[in-house]
Design a protein that fits this description.
This protein has 71 residues and is of the alpha+beta class. The chain is built from 2 helices and 2 strands. β1 and β2 form a beta hairpin. α1 crosses α2. The longest helix is centred in the middle third of the chain and has 13 residues. The two termini are 13 Å apart.
Length: 71
């Protein structure tokens, strides 16, 4: 999985005085929400949906490999 392409800048969030990468923050949150048995494809669609809710259009997260495999 990738937070951004090689020609893109990965977004960051400031929360409670600390800076976190948007991708890592969203990935962990959606892993917990989705629970066991979700596929990588489902997870990445939810992470992309988080990006879509924010006023940031500089990049989109991507993934490679067997995205239909369960996590």
């Amino acid at each position: 999985t990738f937070a951004a392409g090689s020609d893109e800048r990965a977004p960051e969030l400031e929360r409670d005085g600390a800076v976190h990468g948007l991708f890592t923050h969203s990935l962990v949150r959606e892993l917990v929400r989705g629970g066991a048995g979700q596929s990588f494809d489902e997870l990445m669609r939810r992470v992309a949906a988080v990006y879509a809710t924010l006023p940031y259009d500089g990049c989109r997260p991507t993934a490679q490999g067997d995205l239909h495999a369960a996590i």
